[in-house]
């Protein structure tokens, strides 16, 4: 089950979409020059003109760049990104087939594999595309500016050299707004010059606004990282991880054991502790461990296990109740500070509850009364990997046999 989730999870889907995009771009660029003046060719029994290969190579490059954008949407687990990606995979495969050479075979095969993998992972992309008012306004301003430049240039085409149709007018508007200015379309009258100035002001301003809206979240993400806070993009990629709720005396040794074996996310409301753990390379989310929304953000629904081991059994019980409610199938293990709270934490929803104080006291008492093999038992429990059949219980039973015990 773990292997399956690793290979068909959201992360694998994002990587595959990115790879298909890159391969599509590389294949298209490689075939643009190769297919110049290409002869007619036969594909699936249909004779096609040679220029189709060049068109497929050119459009394949553009499709690849669009796929790179949709891969970013998959990273944010957007349902719209999933639909767009699934729509583009058949397009890239068809473009690869139309380019009709050995260089396009990897693109066709990878598109087919990615289509299956991403399609199987439909449920992982459950977030709706939500645009802020600022983003909507920026996009509307850009669209309006381009529409103004295109329609105006076409209506005033007699005042421009080089504008003959709507495509020329759109080309003029886009080139002007991007400040490229090739100089192939120029005004030939005062009216054309005044209109060109207005297009320059409107379109350049709209481009600047859109770029600001795009780069602001990136800057915020870097600031969040510096402050030891996880970004939404990082949280979106979490799956099959171990969620540690809260911080206590046992957290450090727990992290040392878990970190080499699994992705771990620590949920704590102590900002100073967050900063220190982040500096040491741990992944931390600053939030209330028992809060339902905090656990949702920590993606408890896709976690492989939940560990609760603070010094407050009451708060631990509340965190366990919340985790069990949000993910009835997840494995929850807890440490009870007070021995009498073991059953209470189990009733709250924990699968396994251990009392470190009681366990340590038992070992110390056995040693004080002359019991042998306690240190050896501890060493074997900490150093040896549990067996598939018996786990740590086999170690305990073996120790009892060596000491002549009955295993109770």
How are the secondary structure elements laid out?
Blueprint: H1 2-7, H2 10-34, E1 41-43, E2 46-48, H3 51-75, H4 79-99, H5 105-120, H6 133-155, E3 160-161, H7 166-177, E4 186-187, H8 190-226, H9 232-236, E5 242-245, H10 251-258, E6 264-268, H11 271-279, E7 283-286, H12 292-297, E8 305-308, H13 313-326, E9 331-335, H14 342-348, E10 352-354, H15 356-368, H16 374-383, H17 392-403
Parallel strand pairs: 5-6, 5-8, 6-7, 8-9, 9-10
Antiparallel strand pairs: 1-2, 3-4
Helix pairs in contact: 2-3, 2-4, 2-5, 3-4, 4-5, 6-7, 6-8, 7-8
Q: Could you report the average pLDDT, rounded to the nearest whole number?
A: 79
Please tell me the total number of domains. Answer: 4
The assigned CATH architecture of the largest domain is: 3-Layer(aba) Sandwich
Helix/strand/pairing category: alpha/beta
Subcellular location: Cell membrane
Domain RCK N-terminal: 239-355
InterPro entries: K_chnl_dom, NAD(P)-bd_dom_sf, RCK_N, Trk_Ktr_HKT_K-transport
Region (Disordered): 383-408
Structural description of this entry:
It is a single chain. Helix content is 61%, strand content 9%. By secondary structure, it is of the alpha/beta class. The chain folds into four domains: 2-124, Four Helix Bundle (Hemerythrin (Met), subunit A); 133-226, Helix Hairpins (Orthogonal Bundle); 233-371, Rossmann fold; 372-408, no CATH class. Residues 1-7 and 385-408 have low confidence and may be disordered.
């Amino acid at each position: 089950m773990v292997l399956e989730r690793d290979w068909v999870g959201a992360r694998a889907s994002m990587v595959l979409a990115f790879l298909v995009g890159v391969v599509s771009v590389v294949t298209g660029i490689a075939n643009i020059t190769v297919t110049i003046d290409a002869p007619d060719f036969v594909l699936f029994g249909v004779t096609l003109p040679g220029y189709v290969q060049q068109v497929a190579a050119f459009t394949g490059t553009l499709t690849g760049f669009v796929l790179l954008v949709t891969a970013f949407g998959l990273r944010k687990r957007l349902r719209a990104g999933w639909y767009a990606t699934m729509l583009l995979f058949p397009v890239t495969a068809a473009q690869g087939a139309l380019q009709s050479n050995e260089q396009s075979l990897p693109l066709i095969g990878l598109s087919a594999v990615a289509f299956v993998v991403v399609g199987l992972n439909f449920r992982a992309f459950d977030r709706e595309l939500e645009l802020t008012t600022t983003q909507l306004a920026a996009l509307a301003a850009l669209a309006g500016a381009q529409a103004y430049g295109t329609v105006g240039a076409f209506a005033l085409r007699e005042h421009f050299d080089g504008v003959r149709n709507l495509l020329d007018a759109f080309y003029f508007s886009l080139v002007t707004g991007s400040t490229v200015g090739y100089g192939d379309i120029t005004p030939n009258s005062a009216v054309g010059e005044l209109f060109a100035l207005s297009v320059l002001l409107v379109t350049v301003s709209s481009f600047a606004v859109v770029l600001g809206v795009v780069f602001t979240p990136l800057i915020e993400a870097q600031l969040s990282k510096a402050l030891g806070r996880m970004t939404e993009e990082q949280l979106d990629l979490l799956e099959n991880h171990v969620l540690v709720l809260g911080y206590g005396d046992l957290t450090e040794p727990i992290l040392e054991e878990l970190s080499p074996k699994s992705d771990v996310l620590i949920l704590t409301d102590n900002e100073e502790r967050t900063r220190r753990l982040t500096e040491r390379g741990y992944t931390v989310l600053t939030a209330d461990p028992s809060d339902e929304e905090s656990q949702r953000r920590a993606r408890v629904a896709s976690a492989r296990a939940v560990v609760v081991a603070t010094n407050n059994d009451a708060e631990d019980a509340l965190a366990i109740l919340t985790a069990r409610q949000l993910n009835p199938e997840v494995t929850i293990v807890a440490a009870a500070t007070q021995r009498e709270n073991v059953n209470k934490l189990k009733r709250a929803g924990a699968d396994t509850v251990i009392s470190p104080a009681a366990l340590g006291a038992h070992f110390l008492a056995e040693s004080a009364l002359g019991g042998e093999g306690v240190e050896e038992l501890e060493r074997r429990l900490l150093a040896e990997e549990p067996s598939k059949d018996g786990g740590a219980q086999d170690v305990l039973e073996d120790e009892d046999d060596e000491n002549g015990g009955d295993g109770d």
